[in-house]
Specification:
By secondary structure, the protein is mainly α. Helices cover 82% and strands 0% of the residues. Helix 1 packs antiparallel against helix 4. The longest helix has 50 residues. It is rod-shaped and about 110 Å long. It starts with a helix and ends with a helix. The model has no long low-confidence stretch (mean pLDDT 84).
């Protein structure tokens, strides 16, 4: 019985040392993941906000079209007024490269936030 008690005592001490080293190492690694995913998310969000204007029509185009129609009405040229659309935004659509870039940017932001979420769960566990 004395040998068994000593074995389990040594086993417990070695296991606790190993576990504490393991936890220290991976806690530090998760801290690094949190920092880098946070920085990447912030930078990625900045680019997404800057690129957001590529997905909507330019409001000055609508203003210019309406002003052109007013000038044509003022000049009495009513036939030219009906030939141009009142709202150029109704015929506008974003370019495919802009849509693809936005999709990739949102996907990378999602993955970064998922990595941060996983690191937080790992730290709490």
């Amino acid at each position: 019985k004395d040998k068994r008690s000593r074995f389990w005592g040594v086993y417990k001490r070695v296991a606790e040392e190993h576990d504490s080293e393991f936890l220290e190492q991976y806690t530090g690694d998760m801290d690094i993941v949190l920092v880098f995913s946070g920085l990447f998310s912030a930078v990625s969000t900045g680019f997404i906000v800057a690129m957001e204007s590529n997905l909507s029509p330019d409001p000055s185009d609508t203003t210019n079209a309406l002003l052109t129609q007013l000038v044509q009405i003022g000049l009495g040229n009513l036939t030219a007024v009906g030939s141009t659309p009142a709202d150029p935004a109704s015929t506008w659509s974003p370019t495919m490269p802009a849509v693809w870039v936005q999709m990739i940017a949102y996907a990378s932001l999602s993955m970064s936030l998922l990595a941060a979420f996983g690191a937080v769960l790992g730290k709490q566990w």
